[in-house]
């Protein structure tokens, strides 16, 4: 019983607030659980991202190692400082990638990483200790031995990188599977929390609606009894201070107030009946004086109305002049807008012309730089041709020396057979070098020919760009002259428009003065008409009062009959 009283003391809004808070708590609980799963999923996703980054960086350092491996034989053959710089660049990139990768690897994978670093250091030792200082003295056997050793290191490094990448991919897939499981759990929690919230809402809403409906039915029944005239019924009983309790108290108070009011109205109706009879007699006397005053005021209204009509005619004529001035002013404003549009178009054209000139100058600079670069390329191609000629001459001399060595070995007999084999190999190598040099010379000649053609075309383009630049400069000057003329025309049109605005304002002031006179005349006419109407209304009101007094007497009699129907 105590809990029922406490619940009934809570306002309906408070009850719905409690239900809402229960639903919110359930919702927050589901959010907390969902957040926990999402936090785990976030950790798994972070792990997946790290593993993918490890896989990518492992692949990068293996690729950098492979590039360094390929540069060693190229440097031995060409002895080019560019290849040395490339090797240093790849070494620097390898160090940066390796440092980043080491910070992300767990301890169990550092063994593989350290082996890769060891192989890289050994490759650097081969290159900087054995190749770079002795590049001119390395023979074929040493080259093959070095190639074999570095190839073994490369194969092992590629295998280690593949193993590290496979581990990272496997770990990433595992973390991704865990994330998917957590997402499924989140879906289940969201579905369950939504269903629970709906069930709780429906339960409490049904419970409250049924309870409120029962009490409202009692209140409706009591209201219908009061409306039918039964004022001597028992009061409603409801324990509580919520809206239903307040409504029950209001119904009880209304019944009591109606009983008291009916008793008072019954006493007042007799007094009203007596006063209405006196009012009927007085209204007859007032009506006679009002009719005489109304006749006098109607004569005054006729003269004032004639003056008002003349003022209205003058105002209409002045308004026609004002409308014509407004039309002219509108055309002048359109002309101002059109001149502004022309000025904007001219200004935009001038700006675009300046931008075009600026762009043509940039193109001119690009053409100049391109011509210089092509000339530089042509000079370097010529240098390559000269170097190829020197190498070809050396190869021919080597071939000739090998031939002489073979002849001398043949003269020496059995003692010179070993030397003859070496001379034959040297001769073959010299012939291969000669063939390669001829191919290089052919390619270099083609490059030189294409470079000459490009230089010729760039020179032609450069001349055309100069012509275009001069033409745009001339057009820009013409646009500036046009822009000045358009701006001068726009200023003159604006001055004309300002004059029309002043004329319009003066006409408007004249029109307002005439309208003021017309309005004053109309107000005077309206005042007399209002006085006349007031007198007529007063006469009608007196007649109405007389009639109402008679009706009031009849209504008092009917009201007494209605009061007698209530059961007090």
Automatic annotation (TrEMBL):
<keyword id="KW-0807">Transducer</keyword>
<dbReference type="GO" id="GO:0004888">
    <property type="term" value="F:transmembrane signaling receptor activity"/>
</dbReference>
<dbReference type="InterPro" id="IPR004089">
    <property type="entry name" value="MCPsignal_dom"/>
</dbReference>
<keyword id="KW-0812">Transmembrane</keyword>
<feature type="domain" description="Methyl-accepting transducer">
    <location>
        <begin position="282"/>
        <end position="532"/>
    </location>
</feature>
<keyword id="KW-1133">Transmembrane helix</keyword>
<feature type="transmembrane region" description="Helical">
    <location>
        <begin position="186"/>
        <end position="208"/>
    </location>
</feature>
<keyword id="KW-0472">Membrane</keyword>
<dbReference type="GO" id="GO:0005886">
    <property type="term" value="C:plasma membrane"/>
</dbReference>
<dbReference type="InterPro" id="IPR003660">
    <property type="entry name" value="HAMP_dom"/>
</dbReference>
<dbReference type="Pfam" id="PF00015">
    <property type="entry name" value="MCPsignal"/>
</dbReference>
<feature type="domain" description="HAMP">
    <location>
        <begin position="210"/>
        <end position="263"/>
    </location>
</feature>
<keyword id="KW-1003">Cell membrane</keyword>
<dbReference type="GO" id="GO:0006935">
    <property type="term" value="P:chemotaxis"/>
</dbReference>
<protein>
    <submittedName>
        <fullName>Transmembrane receptor taxis protein YvaQ</fullName>
    </submittedName>
</protein>
<comment type="similarity">
    <text>Belongs to the methyl-accepting chemotaxis (MCP) protein family.</text>
</comment>
<dbReference type="Pfam" id="PF00672">
    <property type="entry name" value="HAMP"/>
</dbReference>
<dbReference type="InterPro" id="IPR004090">
    <property type="entry name" value="Chemotax_Me-accpt_rcpt"/>
</dbReference>
<dbReference type="GO" id="GO:0007165">
    <property type="term" value="P:signal transduction"/>
</dbReference>
<keyword id="KW-0675">Receptor</keyword>
<feature type="transmembrane region" description="Helical">
    <location>
        <begin position="16"/>
        <end position="38"/>
    </location>
</feature>
């Amino acid at each position: 019983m105590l809990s029922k009283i406490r619940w009934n003391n809570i306002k309906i809004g408070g009850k719905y607030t409690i239900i809402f808070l229960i639903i919110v708590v359930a919702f927050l609980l589901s959010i907390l659980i969902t957040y926990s799963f999402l936090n785990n999923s976030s950790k798994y996703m972070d792990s997946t991202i790290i593993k993918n980054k490890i896989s990518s960086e492992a692949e990068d350092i293996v690729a950098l190692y492979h590039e360094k491996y390929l540069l060693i034989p190229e440097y031995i053959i060409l002895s080019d400082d560019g290849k040395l710089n490339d090797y240093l660049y790849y070494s620097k990139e390898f160090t940066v990638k390796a440092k980043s990768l080491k910070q992300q690897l767990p301890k169990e994978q550092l063994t593989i990483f350290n082996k890769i670093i060891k192989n890289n250091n050994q490759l650097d030792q081969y290159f900087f200790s054995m190749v770079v200082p002795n590049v001119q003295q390395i023979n074929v056997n040493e080259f093959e031995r070095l190639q074999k050793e570095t190839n073994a290191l490369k194969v092992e490094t590629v295998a280690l990188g593949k193993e590290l990448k496979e581990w990272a991919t496997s770990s990433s897939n595992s973390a991704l599977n865990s994330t998917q499981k957590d997402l499924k759990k989140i879906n289940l929690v969201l579905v369950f929390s939504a269903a629970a919230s709906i069930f709780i809402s429906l339960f409490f809403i049904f419970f409250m609606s049924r309870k409120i409906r029962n009490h409202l039915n009692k209140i409706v029944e009591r209201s219908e009894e009061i409306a039918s005239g039964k004022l001597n019924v028992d009061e409603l009983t409801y324990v509580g201070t919520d809206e239903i309790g307040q409504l029950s108290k209001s119904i009880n108070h209304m019944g009591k107030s109606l009983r008291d009011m009916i008793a008072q109205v019954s006493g007042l109706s007799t007094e009203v009946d007596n006063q209405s009879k006196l009012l009927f007699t007085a209204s007859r006397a007032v009506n006679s004086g009002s009719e005489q005053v109304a006749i006098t005021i109607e004569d005054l209204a006729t003269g004032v109305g004639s003056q008002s009509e003349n003022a209205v005619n003058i105002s209409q004529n002045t308004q026609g002049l004002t409308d014509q001035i407004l039309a002219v002013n509108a055309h002048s404003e359109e002309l101002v807008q059109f001149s502004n549009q022309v000025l904007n178009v001219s200004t935009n054209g001038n700006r675009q012309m300046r931008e075009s000139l600026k762009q043509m100058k940039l193109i001119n600079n690009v053409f100049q730089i391109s011509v210089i670069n092509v000339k530089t390329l042509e000079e370097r191609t010529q240098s390559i041709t000269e170097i190829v000629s020197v190498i070809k001459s050396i190869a021919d001399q080597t071939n000739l020396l090998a031939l002489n060595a073979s002849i001398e070995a043949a003269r020496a007999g059995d003692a010179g057979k070993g030397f003859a084999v070496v001379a034959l190999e040297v001769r073959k190598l010299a012939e291969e070098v000669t063939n390669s040099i001829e191919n290089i010379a052919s390619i270099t000649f083609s490059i030189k020919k294409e470079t000459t053609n490009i230089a010729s075309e760039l020179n032609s383009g450069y001349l055309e760009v100069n012509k275009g630049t001069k033409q745009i400069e001339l057009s820009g000057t013409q646009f500036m002259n046009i822009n000045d003329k358009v701006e001068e025309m726009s200023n003159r049109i604006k001055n004309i428009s300002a004059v029309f605005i002043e004329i319009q304002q003066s006409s408007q002031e004249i029109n307002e003065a005439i309208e003021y006179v017309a309005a004053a005349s109309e107000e005077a006419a309206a005042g007399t008409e209002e006085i006349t109407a007031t007198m007529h209304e007063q006469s009608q009101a007196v007649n109405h009062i007389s009639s109402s007094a008679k009706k009031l007497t009849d209504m008092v009699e009917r009201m007494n009959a209605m009061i007698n129907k209530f059961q007090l």
